[in-house]
Every structure is written in structure tokens, then in C-alpha cells.
Amino acid sequence: MFQSHKIVKNFLSISLLQAINYLIPLFILPYLVKVVGIANFGISNYILTIFIVFKIFIDYGYNISGVKDVSECKNQLDKLNIIFSKIFFTKIYLLLISLIILLIAILLIPILNKISTILLFSFLILIGQSLMPVWFYQAIEKSEILVVFSLFTRAIYLFLIFTYVQISEDYIFINLFLGFADILLSILSLAYIFWKYKIQIQLLSLPIFWHELKNNFVYARSNIYVTISLTMPFVTLGFFTNNLILGYYGIADKIIQACRTSASILHSATFPRVIALYNQGFDVFKLFIQRLHVFLLVFYFFLFLACFVFPSFIIQVITNSNVIHQETILVLKILSVVPLIAALELLPTHLLLIQHKQKKYAQILFFASFFSGLISVVMSYFFNFIGAAIAYVFVELFILSWLIISNKIIISKIFSR
Q1: Other beta carbons within 10 Å of 362
Q2: What pLDDT, on the 0 to 100 scale, is given for residue 49?
């Protein structure tokens, strides 16, 4: 009972944390679209999507391995100090590498040079999110602490948006203010860890840094591949359309990503417990997975129906506007199945990771990223925003199919009587 309570508490905490991160952008979306316009909103949102790839590169798979390593030695301070120091400084070094890459790209690519200000402002988001020790709080199942800090920093973000974003040219400050809030959140969450858990960080030498890159690459490449796979349709669309269409697409995409993230929350919240139950015995593991899967099917099927049947109503509520563009409605209907597919990916992903088949998982996502790049270019070129949305769905189906095929034996055992 106590373990179940911890799972529920951890799930609710992570859910609330992610809800803050995704619902606040939806909350201010009507104001931003009205003040800066759909085209400028589209630019800001498009840059955020590109920066997601940088963020995943800097995270370097520690959202998986970090949770795993810390959860296995929660009460061993010496080991925690070593793990924390390695992850913390590896991220800082990767952050510096990312900054150098961005500066070179701005200098060499004229189109990026024209928007260099908003790109550099947006880099603050990378700094904040990269240093944020979400992995540590998830591992010790104390995510509620992050929720408190996040509420405070997001309140500051809202104040800055409503106070200083007043005209269309102010769109460059949207990501700047978000970056400031994320950096403040990182400072607060790190300070609490150092105070409460007495963590002492040690500077990471370059040889150990290179060793960490090699050691954690199997986790990192999986995250990088899946991020490329899922962002490629929207990023590719930017080469074949205008900022206005990016804005229309971006509104629907934000709604779907908010729904899809709940599946990622379930992965983060249940992963430490799934590892423990798998090691405890197959029967208790099987029972937990069966119950979890029933919940996934029921909840995400109804979520799919809501987005597909009532897209106009959902968009109207989210944007707080009576002007509903048909492009946004169509994209939302096409993408409505994405959260359901993502939820069904949860079980086979868990199975590969707990069986230490990270290489197989990475191979699947590598081919998915290649498939995503190919289909995104073709579909966006011939069918514009509709093609990009369809490409996104096909990529999700591609990943789900190969995950199931790779786990067909153990999945049949789990659901057999």
C-alpha cells in the first residue's frame, strides 16, 4: 500500500510539474497571438522546437540513466556525490559546446544571423532546463519539491509576459523571459539539494568527461534519435511554408504536445517502480503492467475521441477566441491519435530498458529518425502542413510497431492468462 501511495504521489507531482510547463504556455497563448500576431508566435514556437534537439543533446540520456543510478543508491552519500558531479559537469560542458555550435551557425548562416537576437535569448532556456536536476528529484521520488519552485518561477514568468510584452516587436522577449524563469528554477532546485541532501560536487576532469560521453552514449543516442524523429515534421515544414502557417500548426501542436506529455510523465513516474517490481518477481510485475495498460487504453482513447470529435471547441477554449482557423482544426484532428500511440509505446519501451536492451532501443529510434527525415521532406513538400501532420503520425506508428515486434515474446507472456 505504501509503495502504491509513493507511485501515485510521484505521478501526481510529475504530472503537476509538467502541467505547469505545458498549460501555462497554453494559458498565455491567446494573449500572445493577439499582441504579437500568429506569424511572430510561429517564429518563437519554431525556434523552441529547434532548441529541443539541443536540449536533448545536453541532457545526454541522464533522464533515464540518472534516475536509474540514483534510485539504486539513494542512501549512499559518497556514491551520490560522484553520480551528481558527473552528470552536473557533463551537462555544463555539453552546454558550452552547444553555445559554440550556435554562435558558429549564426555567423555562417545568413537566415540565422537575421534572427540572432531571439536565438541568443532562447539559449537562456537551454541553460535553465539543462541544469535543472529533475532526474534527481524523480529518482528520490520527491518531485513535489520541484512543483513548489516551479509555481513560484512561472508566476514571475507570467508577470514579465503580461507586463513587458505589449506590441508585436516584443515577441523576441517571450523566450527570454522563459529562460530567466528556468534559470531561477534551476538555482532554487540545486540549492535545495545541496542543503537538504548534503551533496558535494567535484569538478569533472576532461578524461572523465570523455569517459562519461562514451559510457552514457547508449542512453543519449536514444533520446537524440527520438527527438529528431518527433520534431522533424515541424522543423521540415518551416522550409516549405510561411510563418503564418507555422503559427496555425503550432497552436494545434502545442495542444497535442500537452496531451502527449502525460504519457512521458507516466514513463518517468513509473520507471523506478517498474525496475523494482521486475527484479522482485515476474508475477507482481505482470499484474502491475496489466493494470497500467488498462488505464492507458481507456484514458487515451477518450482523449483521442475528444480531440478528433470536438477540435473547434478545444481550440476555442485554449485560444479564448471565436476566430478558429480551419488549418488548426485540420492539424488537430490529424494529430489527435498521437497521444494514444505514445501511451502504447510506454510498455515496450519499459521492457527494453529493464532487460538492458538499450542498444536495440537505440537502433529502433535511429531508423525512426531516418524514416522521419525522409517522410517529412516528401510529405511537407507535396502536402504542406497537412503532410507534416500525417508524417508525424506515421513516425509514431513506425516506432510503436518496431517496439512491439522487439518485445513480442515477453508481451505475449504478460497478457496471457
Answers
A1: 22
A2: 83
